[in-house]
Each structure stands twice: as structure tokens, then as C-alpha cells.
């Protein structure tokens, strides 16, 4: 049986993940831990389900085991609210919007055009799978809490794990440092020394761990420090910019000049994004600005 065509009065999700229509069926269905340790069978065309609820539960569990979350992309219901047909897809389906309305606050997107989707229809009071597309291309993007929770589920409970989440976090934080490769830290230090030799207004600071490995670094040249004195009334700080294979977060401090142009006031490379490292970075930036603290301290206190 062919998948029904979409009519004008139906709910459709566009390629930016925005739902068009008045139906409130567009719900992100996060995978939830379950007790089905034997796994979930891959969906096949023609498989039957007694109810919509049974189908959604099944596909949620399949998404959990496969590694993606699901959401309603297309749905159509009868007058009595019974389902006529439903299409479920990956929450990361669709393409990211390229148009940026506020360049000073760019936003990350989770959209990677994942093609995974499944369509079911109702025939003679029975729901069956009509079409399937299982091209899942989600990239790993897992926070520490989700990773640890997954370990708990796999182990069968917190009491069966040899460590607690705090211990795992401490181990990871200790292992993190700037991955510059052999001789990279010395080369960076040498570069900073040469720059300071050319201009004593060049400022740099390197944060080392207990094993003298480079964790974080901050620098600002003479022009940036001078610009801060005139254009430091409004300063933005962001860490969304990731750099190449080293996996370091680039953390620029940016101001706006009298022409409305963005200007760099200082920058850092940080090995992680936690309170301790942010405190180091902000304190170092304050020291760099030679007592011109009030302008930047208001930025820090505001939580930027």
C-alpha cells in the first residue's frame, strides 16, 4: 500500500524542523531506559500493531537501542481523533538554517539531515508499517550525564557500578589538557615570548596541570588591549567555536567599535568548559586589562 499523499490541512514538519499547521502532535519523544535487555527487532514493512501507543513505544525503544530520538513529522487523524497515518522521524532530521538573524549570538544546531523515518497507516482498525527509511547518520554528541546514565542502565543499577558520577567527572577533568602534540606547548610558549619581545604590551598566560601539561591559554596583543580601553563598554564572550582536530574550545572576547564592527579584545584556548576554567580565564583577562576591571566585571557577574 502506498503512503498517503499529504494534503493542505495536514501537519508537516519543514526542512528546518519547524512544524506547519495547527495540530499539536509534534512531540519530541526522547528514548527512555527500559528493561528490554534482549534488544528490539528492526522494523519491517507490514509489521502490525494493535494501537498507536504500542507502535510509538516500540519505535521509541528501537531509537534508544539504535541511538537516536524520535519525533512526529507528519500525522493525520479522523474526526474521532483516531490515527489515520503517522510518520515518525529523527529529531536531528532536516537541514540547519543558514540565515543568521543575530551574528553576535550564533546558535548551535542539532540538525544534520538525518533521513531515518517510518510511516504507519490504519487499515481495518489495525496499524501497520507502510514504509521505512533507516539511514541514521547521527553524530556522537553526548554529555557526561547522559553517558553515565547509559552506563547505569547497562549495568542494571547504580549499585552495580564501581564508580559514582563525581568520580568519573574527576577522572575526565584530570585527563583533559590541550592536545597540541609533542612540542606543541613549547612552540606556543616560544611564540608568545617572541611576540612580547617585539612589543611589551603583548600579554599571554598559560595554565598548566600538576604534570606541567598545558590546560588553558589566554592572550591579547597591544592593539586588543588598547581597543578594550575605548570599546570595552559591551563585551561578548562565547565558546561555541571549536578548532580542528585538537578539540579545543576557542574563547574570544569581542567588543564593538564606533562603526558597529566586531573587534577582538582577547582570546583563549580552553581544554574544557567548567566553572574552574572559566574563573581562570576571566581572572586572567582582568589581569590583562590592568585594573580596568569594572567594565569586564559587570560582564562576568551577569553570567555572560
How would you portray this structure in words?
This protein has 304 residues and is α+β, with helices and mostly antiparallel strands. It folds into two domains: 11-141, no CATH class; 184-301, no CATH class. Helix content is 28%, strand content 25%. The chain contains seven helices and 14 strands. The protein has helices at residues 52-66, 144-155, 165-175, 184-198, 222-231, 275-288, 293-301, and strands at 11-13, 19-20, 28-29, 48-49, 70-77, 83-90, 117-123, 126-133, 203-208, 214-220, 236-237, 241-243, 248-256, 262-270. Strands 1, 2, 3, 4, 5, 6, 7 and 8 form an eight-stranded antiparallel β-sheet that branches. Strands 9, 10, 11, 12, 13 and 14 form a six-stranded antiparallel β-sheet that branches. The longest helix has 15 residues, at 52-66. It is elongated. 19% of the residues are buried. The model is unreliable at 1-38, 99-109, 138-142 and 296-304 (pLDDT under 50).
Number of helices: 7
Shape: elongated
Q: Kindly give the count of domains.
A: 2
Number of strand segments = 14
N/C terminus separation: 55 Å
What's the mean pLDDT score? 68
N-to-C order of helices and strands = EEEEHEEEEHHHEEHEEEEHH
Low-confidence stretches: 1-38, 99-109, 138-142, 296-304
Q: Tell me the fraction of residues in β-strands, as a range.
A: 25-35%
Amino acid at each position: 500500500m502506498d503512503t498517503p499523499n499529504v494534503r493542505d490541512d495536514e501537519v508537516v514538519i519543514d526542512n528546518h524542523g519547524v512544524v506547519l499547521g495547527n495540530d499539536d502532535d509534534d512531540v519530541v519523544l526522547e528514548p527512555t531506559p527500559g528493561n528490554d535487555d534482549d534488544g528490539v527487532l528492526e522494523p519491517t514493512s507490514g509489521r502490525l500493531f494493535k494501537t498507536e501507543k504500542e507502535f510509538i513505544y516500540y519505535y521509541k525503544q528501537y531509537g534508544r537501542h539504535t541511538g537516536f530520538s524520535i519525533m512526529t513529522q507528519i500525522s493525520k487523524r479522523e474526526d474521532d481523533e483516531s490515527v489515520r497515518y503517522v510518520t515518525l522521524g529523527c529529531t536531528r532530521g532536516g537541514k540547519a538554517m543558514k540565515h543568521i538573524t543575530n551574528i553576535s549570538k550564533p546558535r548551535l544546531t542539532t540538525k544534520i539531515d538525518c533521513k531515518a523515518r517510518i510511516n504507519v497507516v490504519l487499515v481495518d482498525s489495525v496499524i501497520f508499517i507502510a514504509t521505512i527509511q533507516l539511514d541514521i547518520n547521527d553524530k556522537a554528541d553526548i554529555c557526561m550525564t547522559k553517558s553515565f546514565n547509559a552506563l547505569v542502565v547497562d549495568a542494571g543499577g547504580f549499585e552495580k557500578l564501581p564508580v559514582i558520577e563525581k568520580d568519573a567527572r574527576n577522572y575526565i577533568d584530570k585527563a583533559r589538557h590541550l592536545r597540541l602534540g609533542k612540542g606543541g606547548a613549547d612552540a606556543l610558549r616560544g611564540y608568545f615570548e617572541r611576540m612580547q619581545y617585539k612589543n611589551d604590551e603583548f600579554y599571554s598566560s598559560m595554565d598548566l596541570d600538576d604534570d606541567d601539561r598545558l590546560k588553558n591559554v589566554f592572550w591579547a596583543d597591544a592593539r586588543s588591549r588598547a581597543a578594550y580601553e575605548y570599546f570595552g563598554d559591551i563585551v561578548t564572550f562565547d565558546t561555541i567555536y571549536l578548532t580542528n582536530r585538537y578539540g579545543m574550545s576557542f574563547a574570544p572576547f569581542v567588543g564593538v567599535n564606533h562603526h558597529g564592527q566586531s573587534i577582538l579584545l582577547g582570546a583563549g584556548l580552553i581544554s574544557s568548559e567548567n566553572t574552574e576554567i572559566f574563573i581562570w580565564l576571566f581572572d586572567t583577562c582582568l589581569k590583562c586589562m590592568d585594573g580596568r576591571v569594572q567594565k569586564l566585571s559587570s560582564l562576568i557577574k551577569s553570567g555572560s
